[in-house]
Design goal:
The complex is a heterodimer of chains A (198) and B (188).
Chain A (H helix, E strand, L loop, with lengths): L15 H11 L2 E4 L10 H5 L10 E4 L7 E5 L4 H13 L5 E5 L1 H5 L21 E3 L6 H17 L4 H7 L1 H12 L21
Parallel strand pairs in A: 1-2, 3-4, 4-5
Helix pairs in contact in A: 1-5
Chain B lengths: L2 H12 L3 E5 L2 E5 L5 H10 L5 E10 L4 E10 L4 E10 L4 E3 L8 H12 L2 E3 L24 H8 L12 H16 L9
Parallel strand pairs in B: 2-5, 6-7
Antiparallel strand pairs in B: 1-2, 3-4, 4-5
The chains are: A alpha/beta (198), B alpha/beta (188).
């Protein structure tokens, strides 16, 4: 059986309208159809008949503009990191990231590879991690359950954190990507005064 | 032709000695200067129409790269590995993409991963690594661990991580200590 670490939910100061909206949001989580690494092999079993994720409201979305969740499934090479950052910035808030597999946590099996990043947390804000190599569909569904609880309690604010601490994230990205950073127009609006939340 | 005929032909035409490794797998060693003649003959006359791959082995101690062209013939059901050595720096090899189009990809890999220059290549762009300004990573003198420690930041919290065997030893020792009979308490 899967050991699910219980998520502690303190009562958050959500207004009634926020509570209602978050209750709706947790039940309709659209996952971007983007398999970044080898973890993507565990997503089809989760979506198909045996472990059916659609009964939880989880279904696939075709483009980042239509998605709520980006699942980083596995290791992130520098080449993929550039594209994932651009994809994440194209998504519309509220948006969440699920880190699938040990590679997103501390580099996993590729901890000593010259081409993979070791902590995805430094480049993008991650809401829920799932440990495993690869986690089974039950674990992935448990993680989606955690994500839903986090959304309902109003604590899944990774996207707001990204906006507040954009300088720190961009500095980290620049350190690994160097000249290969995304063009500035993809994230200019984060720095415009008044648009930032912090 | 079978492997016997191929062996005699390579001996008479180019003076090469072919080694039979398995019933349908053979190996021959040549020089860079002779490469064009040998590969050309193999492709055009001997019926080795397919190039499987181009591999490279880094012999750091001898200071050479050993490059292998692995050719296959469907008509004769044979696989032939044509190998030659080049020094690790300063020598470029010709591109075979006009004869075998798939060679274009393998040569891009050689350039990026080993730093071997290819002449006459139609489209030498990045193979896999973008914006890579460091030593070609498949070379044996590329210190991967030092590079990773320098370039990336590891997550804290696992500095006391032990090897799996050590953990198992500790577990076995702890279990033995638990099950050992209690010592008699000394009288006061």
């Amino acid at each position: 059986m899967v050991n699910v670490i219980p998520v502690e939910l303190e009562e958050n100061q959500q207004s009634l309208i926020e509570k209602v909206l978050n209750w709706f949001r947790q039940q309709s989580v659209f996952v971007l159809a983007y398999g970044t690494g080898c973890g993507a092999i565990e997503v089809p079993p989760t979506m198909t008949a045996r472990y059916d994720a659609e009964r939880f409201g989880i279904r696939g979305a075709a483009t980042p503009r239509q998605a709520d969740v980006l699942v980083i499934s596995g290791y992130l090479s520098l080449k993929t990191l550039k594209r994932v950052i651009r994809t994440y910035e194209q998504m519309q808030g509220p948006k969440f990231i699920l880190g699938l597999g040990s590679c997103t946590i501390n580099g996993g099996m590729y901890w000593d590879s010259y081409n993979t990043v070791k902590q995805v947390d430094r480049y993008l804000p991650i809401d829920v991690y799932v440990a495993g190599c690869m986690p089974r569909p039950e674990a992935l569904l448990a993680a989606f359950g955690d994500l839903q609880k986090k959304i309902a309690s109003g604590k899944a604010d990774g996207w707001e954190k990204y906006q507040r601490e954009i300088e720190w994230y961009k500095a980290n990205q620049r350190k690994v990507l160097g000249n290969n950073m995304n063009p500035s127009y993809t994230s200019d609006w984060y720095h415009i005064e008044g648009a930032s939340l912090g | 032709m079978n492997s016997q005929e191929l062996q005699t032909q390579l001996q008479t035409l180019f003076g090469l000695e072919m080694v039979v490794k398995r019933p349908q797998l053979m190996q021959v060693s040549t020089q860079l200067a002779q490469l064009e003649l040998v590969l050309g003959w193999l492709h055009h006359q001997a019926g080795f129409e397919t190039l499987s791959t181009i591999t490279c082995t880094d012999w750091l101690e001898e200071g050479i790269f050993h490059i292998n062209y692995i050719l296959q013939s469907t008509q004769h059901r044979l696989t032939l590995m044509v190998g030659f050595d080049i020094p690790r720096d300063g020598v470029s090899i010709p591109s075979w993409s006009r004869v075998w189009p798939q060679a274009e990809t393998y040569e891009r890999e050689l350039k990026e991963m080993y730093g071997i220059e290819i002449t006459g290549h139609p489209d030498m762009r990045d193979f896999m690594l973008e914006n890579w300004n460091f030593m070609p990573p498949m070379r044996r003198d590329f210190d991967t661990k030092a590079f990773v420690d320098d370039f990336y930041v590891m997550r804290v919290g696992r500095e006391d991580a032990l090897d799996v065997k050590e953990v198992l030893k500790l577990k076995v020792a702890a279990k033995k200590a638990m099950e050992a009979p209690q010592e008699a308490k000394p009288n006061e």
